[in-house]
Each structure stands twice: as C-alpha cells, then as structure tokens.
Request: fold
Amino acid sequence: MPDLVAMGGLNTSLLIGMQALEVSEGALNATSNNIANSNTPGYTREIPEISETPETVSGGTVTGGGVSLDGLQSVRDELLNLQIQQQTSAQSGADTESSALEQIQTNFASTGNDIASTFSAFSSSLAQLSASPSSTAAQAGVISSGQNLAESFNTAANSLTAEQSAMNTQVTQTVAQINSLTQQIAQLNGQVSQLTAAGQDGGTIEDQRDELVQQLSQLTGISVTQSSDGEVITTGNGTPLVMGSQSYSLQTTTGSNGMQHVLDSNGTDITATLQGGTLGGSIQVRDHVIPSYLTQLNTLASQFASAFNAAQAKGFGSNGNAGQNFFSVPANGAGAAAGITVSITDPSQIAISSDGAAGSNGNVANLSAALTNALPSGQTPSQAYANLVFQVGNDASNASTQSTAIGQNILQLTNQQSSVSGVSIDEETTNLIRYQTAYEAAARIVSTIQQLGTVTLDMGSSQSY
Amino acid sequence: MRVNPNMVPDILADLQQSQTAVNTSLQEVATGKSVNVPSDNPVAASDMVQNTIETANVDQYTQNVSSTLSMVQTADSSLGSVVTSLTQAISLGTEGANGTNNSTDLQEIATQVQGILQSVVAQANTSYQGTYLFGGTETASTPYTASAASSSGYAYNGNNDTNSVAVGDDMNVQVNLPGSQIFSSSNTDVLGSLSSLVSALQSGNSSQIQTATSGVTTALNYVSQQRVFYGNAVSQMNLQETSLQQETVSLTSQQSNLIDVNEAQAATELSQAETANNAAEAAAAKVLPDTLLNFLVPTQ
Reply:
C-alpha cells in the first residue's frame, strides 16, 4: 500500500474508491443474504463488519487509508437460546401429557357409557327390584345393567392400558430421534470449533446446530454448556449426549414390567431421571399418571365386587339357593378393572330374598347398601369414582394450562430473540438504499479519478483542447 | 432497543387465542353445556358423578313410590271390604242371638255368614299384578286354601315375613303384613271367629251365638287396628313422593349450576369472542403486508 501512496494522490483516491466498491458489494451481499433468509427457521441475521483502514502520515501530510470489510458477524444471544431450549423442553413435556390426558379423560366424561352412568343404572335397577322382586323383567334388568357396569370398567381400564402402550412406543421412537439428532449436532460441533479455531464466525453452521439443538430440546430436557471444543449437551441429570464432536447414543431395553427402559451409553438405566420433552412427558404419563389411575380403578372394581358379592351371600336367589358371587374379578387384584365380569346368568340367582321365599325382597336392601356403603378404602364407590374423575380432569386441565403458560413464555423469549437476531425487511431495505448510494458514490469516485487521470496525461499535449 | 421485526408468531398466537375463544363459546352454545370433558371443570365433573347416580335413583324411587302406593292402596281397600263384611256378620250374629228366629231362619243366617267368611277369604287372597298381598313373602302361592284339618276350615300357606321397598336413600317402607298376622293370628283369629259364628248359628244356641258374635266384634276391632298400618304406609309414601319431587328439583338445579351454560351469557360471550377474533384478523391483514417497499417509488 505505501508504494501505491508513493505513486501519488490520484492513485490513492482510486484505491480508496475501489475499496469502497468492494465493501459496498460485501455489504449488499450481506443484505441480500439476510433478505433471502428472512423466513428461514433458525437463521440469524448477519451484519457486515466495516472498519476504516489506518491513515498514513507522510511528511506531515495525513492521508486517509480508506475502508475495509473485516467479515460478516451473526447477531445472536446465546443466553436467550438457552432459555428458549429449556422452555421448549418443558412445553413439549406438558404437551405430551396434555394430549395423552385429553384422550384418557374422554373415558371419564359423562357419555352414557361411562362408569358413573352405568353405576347409576345398576343402582336404579336394584331399586326397581325392591318394588318388584318377582318381576323377571326387573331381575333381568339387574343382570344386564350389572354387565354394562362391568363392561364400562373393562373399557376404561383397557383404554388406559392402550394409551400406556402408545406412550411406550413413543419412548422408543423418541430415543431413536434423539440419537439421530445428537449425531448430527456432534458433526456440526466439530465444524464450528474448526471455524472458531481459525478465528472465523460460525455463521450458518452455528445456525444449523442451534436449530438442531432446539429440536433436541423438544424431545428431552437438556443442559447445554460451552467448552473449548464446542458445545457439551447432557440430559437434565447430566447423562452426556454430545461432547464436542463426539455423540453418545441412548439405548432402550424391555424392562421386567414389559415397558421400554432408557439406558445411557454405559448401559445405566436412566428412565426415572429423564424429565421434559416428549420423552420425559411420555415416561411421566406411562410410569406415573396412568398406573395411578389404573390402581384406583382396580381397587374400586375389586373392593366393590367383594362388597356386592358379600351382600349376595347374605340372601337367597328366587330359586331358593344361597346367593353366589354376582361379580367375578381376577384373583390378582392388578387386573380387577379390566377383568371384572358378571358371573351369574340366571336371574333366579340374584339374592333378592332374605328368607328363601321367592316373593321376598329382604336382601335387596343389602345389595343396594353395597353401592352406598364405604368400601375398605374408606370411600363409597361413587366417592371413589368421583375422586378419580376429579383427578383426571384436574391433571388434564393443569397440563394444558401449563402448556399455554409456557407457550406465552416462549413467545416472549422468541420475540426477544427475534428482536436481536431476526431479519427486518425495513431495515434491510434501508441498508440496501444506503449501500446502493455508497456503491454509486464510490463508482463515481473511480470514474472521476479516471477522467482526472486522462486530463493529467493530456496536460503535455497542445492538441488536447 | 431493536424492535422485533417479525410479527408473524405474535399475530399467529393472537389469532389462535381468539379462535380458541370462539370455538369454546360455540361449543358451549351448541351443546348447552359448559362441562363437556372433566378438564373443563374438574370439580363440577366430579360432583356430577354423585348427581347422576342420585338423579337416576330418585327417578326410580319415585316410580317405586307410585307402584307401591297402588299396591298398598289395594291392600287397604281389601281390608276395608273385610271390615264391611265383619260388620255385616256382627249384625247377622246379633239378629241370630235375639231368640226370635226359628231353626230355618238360623240356618239361613248361618249360610249368609258362611258367604261372608268366603268373601273375607277371597279378600285375604287378593293379588296385585300377580303377587298375593297377604301371604307374607310367599307371594306366588294362594295364602288361604280350604282345609278340613284347620278349625276355621282354611289353612294359611304363606309365611310370617314382610317386604320393604326402597323409596329413598336409607329409607325402606314396609309394604305388607302377613295374612297370619291379619286373618289368622293366634290371638285374634278373624277367619276362626266367623267359622265359630257359623257353627253357633247352626247349633241354634243363643248364648253360643252371642259369644261368637262378640268374638267377631273383637276380630273387627283387631282388623281395624291392623288396617292402620296400611293407612300409615300410604301417608308415609305420599309424604315421600313430595320430598322426592323436591329432591328432583334440587338435583336438576344442581346439575344446571354445575354443567349447564347460561344461554344468554354464552350467546354474549360468543358474540364477544367473534368480535375479538374479527378485530385480530383485521389487524393482522392491515399490519402484515406493510414494509418500507410499499412506499418506495421504483426508479425507472
């Protein structure tokens, strides 16, 4: 450069004009790239880093050194990214729970086939039997409404089990998605650290990685830290997923309860520690929410069946025989709700009579009392069921409220992130005009200098003018 | 501070929110219910379990009251006929005991009393919709049949048990007395007193007729006492019917408070939600296309 300066003032100006053209081109490039990617997910706007070239002092004269483009810089806020990732995990977990509970709760809504409706039909069929103990229609009504009650228990239990196994499948699928994402992230991590080592901006590769980390945070709760060789990503409890350019795969294995357990790369079972994201949400619903409902439903079914059978045993059927079990439940209480059935088929086996006479209704009061008396759990059957309905409704409502609240949070954070990193068309248009003007002016400098050069060269010639 | 240039997520969230409000209001207006699934209002959904069961039971109790009421009234009117018959027998007995009748007259009176005995037995064998009312809980077999072995000439085939009908939670009303208590009690045997009167009339002995007649008078008083039971059952059930009606009203209003929508309020909410949604859409349509480019005059 000093040699050019030595060549004289006009050449210096020409050089400065050329630099200005290059810088404006670079800036226009950045602007057009920003506009092109204004709707690209995860894109971070880039700004040209322009600085003035140091001036030259030669013989007491100060000459401006022009301009140079140092590179393009992505405008990102890593702290905001981290917060968005955390909230995304939380929301995705709540969403998974919420959509599972939406499906579960339809079984507990008042549809006419739900346990509350069939229980009330059973109860009123017994009341009818009290008024017409010898009516075969009333007797058959008790058997069929008893069967409906048993079936609504079966349906509720089976749909809970079906939802549980759907969640189980989701665990396996999510683990596979996590493994695929962590591999890609590790690869990009390696590229970013090479660029950073060379003193360059990670730019688009960093954008891609951030977008993948964002996707990963939807699948499970993660914690992200920076290290010398790139990002370190672990699950919430510290199981490594990505360290620099190395990824660690999770595995699944069938546990003793028939459900898929998640193992880390060393084979340690980490199922219980996973929280947040689709994975955490699925595990929460599969291992805690549904088993809790099933336990309550099973307890209710088996205790109610025992209480009703005990009332049956106190009386006699219209056939004169001592009352036998009305309901049968699997001996193992765990499958009570799914397995409860009505074990008698002949209406004459309903223990209506207290004295063995066909016209007696003396035992109906005992049968009805089995529906309203407290079970060993301390609650009446309808209280126990009402509690379960409340719990299901409350869980579903909480999960959806939580998801909405976190959604608001994420919207705020995304707004902030967008206000830092988002492409503004207005801003880019303004920049476009600025750089266009600057480019035109720089081009004018070059052409002016060229004209002046011609004038200078012609100075010696008499024919010039 | 730099302003967020991308309004799309915000606008989408707003539109989604206002659309959700419209959907919710629409569903409430369409179904007439504010609680369609438990999560809409867990407490109300849980309270509705009890309400559903109670409502069905109260319906059934009401039916029980009306069917039992006609059964009890049938029994009561049977006993009313028995009282009339016994009163007739007493006047016949009194007539037979006054000593002015010859033996033919007495035989005739005896035949009349025998007829009264048969009609009382017929009342004792009253059935209602195929079940015998005075056989205890042996409702399928005829309570009194002719039997030479019995002193009254009729044997009791029923038992001494009673039935009670559920007409409310924890409220069972006893609806029958066994025939053995009304007609052939060991203390006051109504049928026996009539058959004694027949025998006395046939024998023609005035003092025997007198004794037998006072026996029938005792029986009449006894039956009237027993009949009070049915009168009480009827009034108990009438009272219960009123209270069940009140219970139905209060259950319906509870249900309405728990899960029904207030139509006027729901309609207002729907129209508010629609207005809000329209406003959000209008704002989005106005704001979204605006960029600086709209205002730059293109250079030719």
